[in-house]
Amino acid sequence: MFAIQITLFSLICLLLALSVYFSFRARREKETAKRGLYSARMNICMGLMLVLIAITQIFFFSESSFRRIFGTVLVLLGLFNLFAGIRNHGHFDRMLR
Predict the structure, then answer these.
(1) Which helix (H) or strand (E) holds 73?
(2) What global pTM score does this model have?
(3) What are the TM regions of this chain, as residue ranges (predicted)?
């Protein structure tokens, strides 16, 4: 159980770092297609991070209705970011080709 928590925490930190990295890359990029591509990658990383945070909230802490509601909201936000990021990544990737 502890190993799973450490693994999830490490993945959350990695995805947070990637989200920040792609955010800076998107804001500094001049070309519109590359800016959109970096923003899409940021959304994908952020969506995965939110889903992992929700998993830790729902399964690894004490049972409370607030944690369940908070985890559910994070899952929905994470899945929306993931879907939007994947859709936008395909769009901007086709623009670059």
Answers:
(1) helix 65-96
(2) 0.94
(3) 6-24, 44-62, 68-86
